[in-house]
Amino acid sequence: MDQNLLTNEVYGAYKPLLFSLAYRMLGSVMDAEDIVHEAFLALNTAEPDAIRNVKAYLCRIVTNRCLDLLKSSRHRREVYVGPWLPEPLLTEKDGPYESLAQQESLSTAYLLLLQQLSAVERAVFLLREAWGYEYAEIADMVGKSSANCRQIFRRARRGLEEQGGAIGETEERLPPASGEGSKEQLARLVSQFVQAISSGDTGLLLRTLAVDASAYTDGGGKTNAALRPIRGSDRVAMFLFSIYAKQPADASYRYADVGGEPGIVLYADGQPSTVLTFRAEQDRIADIYIVVNPEKLANVR
């Protein structure tokens, strides 16, 4: 079998899956893209006769690369300045990640939930829950026994249920991205949020926010940002209005799909300066995620 032909055939079929796995493991668009590229390079140099299952082979490479990177970057995460948020992934129409928004759970809230798991727990959970690999196959990918992987998966699922109740009643699959109804609801709340901020309507903003709303700002020590989460609707409102007051005269914004959910991109001097994403609960905005770290905005347009 021609090796280049093999790579070209599987690239289109498996790149979205591999990227989704790496991005959910790492929360970084750039690192996920690099690891997927490395996986295809490895496939290109492998002996075809030694590969029984191309998809499993690629998933194993991506999983192991992610685990290695997480081990090497653990110190960086521990000394990260302020709250850490995932790198925004724009999933807009005609964009490179559009297809992911239709079938994957990539919201900021869900990625943060996954971050509560250890790296190995995250890998086992995703490989089992999202793609239905058997425990024996997962064991081969992560270097654990099949029985151990089963225990890891159950522990990970239980931990996620306790953290955020994000896992549904079904045993077999990860919950899909938000349905049209909930996305429309969030889009309405985001529009109301923008109206309140731009008009200075404190009452409208407080009616849009949950009483115990929180705002998380990721500056990574690269720019001015709150070093701790802001909690409570009154304090969040004051914080948001103070941010708005500091925007330059030429600032602009647009609505955008971020991780398959309604979000906002702010611009200053024609360049992306901030990405906001949201989590809604009981028809109110419960959490606001604000990324201003310029290193995490490199792929935002």
The count of helical stretches stands at 11
Count up the domains: 2
Question: Proportion of β residues?
Answer: 15-25%
CATH class of the largest domain: Mainly Alpha
H and E string? HHHHHHHHHHEEHEEEE
Report how far apart the termini are: 40 Å
CATH architecture of the largest domain: Up-down Bundle
- The Rg value, from CA coordinates, equals 20 Å
Short key terms for the protein model shown above:
301 residues, alpha+beta, Butyryl-CoA Dehydrogenase, subunit A, domain 3, Nuclear Transport Factor 2, Chain: A, 2 domains, six-stranded mixed sheet, 11 helices, 51% helix
Protein described:
With 301 residues, the chain is an alpha+beta fold. The chain folds into 2 domains: 3-164, Butyryl-CoA Dehydrogenase, subunit A, domain 3 (Up-down Bundle), CATH 1.20.140.160; 180-297, Nuclear Transport Factor 2, Chain: A, CATH 3.10.450.50. Helices cover 51% and strands 15% of the residues. It contains 11 helices and 6 strands. A 6-stranded mixed beta sheet has the order 2-1-6-5-4-3. The protein starts with a helix and ends in a 10-residue tail after the last strand.
